[in-house]
Amino acid sequence: MVKEEFKLENQLCFRLYSASRLITQAYHPLLTKQGLTYPQYLVLLVLWEKDAQPVNDIAKRLLLETNTVTPLLQRMEKEGILTRTKGEKDARQIIVSLTSKGKKLQEKLADVPFSMGEAVMCDSVTPDTAPDLFRMLDDIINRLLHKTDI
Amino acid sequence: MVKEEFKLENQLCFRLYSASRLITQAYHPLLTKQGLTYPQYLVLLVLWEKDAQPVNDIAKRLLLETNTVTPLLQRMEKEGILTRTKGEKDARQIIVSLTSKGKKLQEKLADVPFSMGEAVMCDSVTPDTAPDLFRMLDDIINRLLHKTDI
DNA sequence: GTTAATTATATCGTTCACGATGCAAATATA
DNA sequence: TATATTTGCATCGTGAACGATATAATTAAC
Questions:
Q1: Which long-range contacts (CB under 8 A, 24 or more apart) does B67-74 make?
Q2: Distance B66 CA to D5 C1' (A)
Q3: What is the domain extent for residue A86?
């Protein structure tokens, strides 16, 4: 008999991992129409909120390392979605700015958040309970971000 | 002003994506000691529950495609954790079985589930509330698995 | 004002994910 | 029993993630 703690059904990690993958898959048809991937869409969310940010700020916002974000931004630059220019104040920084194409994508993707909201709503996840889910996930994220070791 | 639905803070997807990545990172030091990655650990969870399964069953259990699982299993075979042998009944199948090394890993990883449990517990996620979180994630997963389109 | 330490970004190598495609074995159909 | 379809697994190409390492610019220390 398998110990309870080793059963796949009892793993929080597997649920998060699967939910994350499946929701990314759900985004795929919506984003691929505009030639975007899901992490690229996240970059756009960050830049739509505040344009012209250094690589580091974008990475921090997405909780990613720069060695993940840099190639991502390079691909998006090649697609003409954004530009990467040397910082004037600090020559080490690369300032990432949206092109007009990048800005216009927001209108073209206007219905994506609503589509995804509907795709995810179900018996236990409703506008009423979503805040609880958000709080739990935020707590887990913060706990894992700030833990020194396990 | 940025529309509410486009703010990173209002995205369920980003929370799931971040939580999943961070929890995988938390597993890393525990698993890397035994030369394992996180998806490889998931494969072991499946095989510890039931040894000698075809590739397809493992993939279905993990909600992954065989083109993801196959190379993963090939690497684990190279590490001597499992064997891949042709099915006797159905020659198309590859039966994946644990080696003694693969079986012994369960003892060496005995404290991992507990370590991860502690790493994740926080104010809003406790043994009391975890079932609610599990149910919500399961509902989201099932909804996304069974939706025809969005 | 040199030298040392830090910071911002990039490069490299490995492992996933996953769409697209290929191939051989098994099954269904004519 | 030929032929067509389906099924199980593998290969290939692309885009993440991420640890390790490198490089250049800035700042701190002496």
A1: B69/B43, B72/B39, B72/B40, B72/B43, B73/B43
A2: 21
A3: 4-146
At A146, the amino acid letter reads: H
Angle subtended at Cα A135 by Cα A45 and Cα B24, rounded to the nearest 5 degrees: 70
Express each pLDDT in A69-127 by its tens digit.
999 999 999 999 999 999 888 999 999 999 999 999 999 999 999 999 999 999 999 99
Q: Which of A141, A7, A117, A110 is nearest to B140 (CA)?
A: A117
Domain containing A132 — which CATH number?
A: 1.10.10.10
Q: How far apart are CA B97 and CA B117, in angstroms?
A: 28
> Hey, is the C-beta of B135 within 8 angstroms of any chain A C-beta?
yes
Q: What is the pTM of this model?
A: 0.94
> Residue A33 has which token pair?
């129409």
DSSP H helices, B79-129, are 100-108, 112-120
Dihedral in degrees, nearest 10, Cα atoms B60, B43, B24, A40 = -40
* A150 chain-B contacts, CB cut-off 8 A: 26, 29-30, 115-116, 118-119
